[in-house]
Amino acid sequence: MPKEFSRTQRLNELVQRDLAEIIRREVVKSDFGMLTVSEIDVAPDLKSARVYISILAAQVPAKDVIKYLNENAGLYRHILSQIMTTRTTPRLHFYHDSSTENGVRMSALINAVLPPKKEDEDE
Q1: pTM of this prediction?
Q2: Is residue 71 situated within a structural domain?
Q3: pLDDT, averaged across the chain
Q4: Has residue 81 been placed in a domain?
């Protein structure tokens, strides 16, 4: 019987859950907006992980937020190593995930093109 989840998939979920909490606690810069860990991709050798971050309502460019996260990746890895029960903790590399922003922009474009709803259409 095949396994439903591979080891790396389970580790992806574990790192995503714990790292989201660490970022929520440690990144206290209000001009960064709302940061969400949208996806984690741990390498098969478990030595590194690509962390994709969605950024909403930021007052600074996304590249500055990602630069800040990458500069503090060692701290986040250290905190993560104290939480996780694995033998090794992957090195973290942060990347911007613009899919949420693109979705919001596309939704606004669609709403701008659609004709306004009439009240009797709702019923």
Answers
A1: 0.78
A2: yes
A3: 86
A4: yes
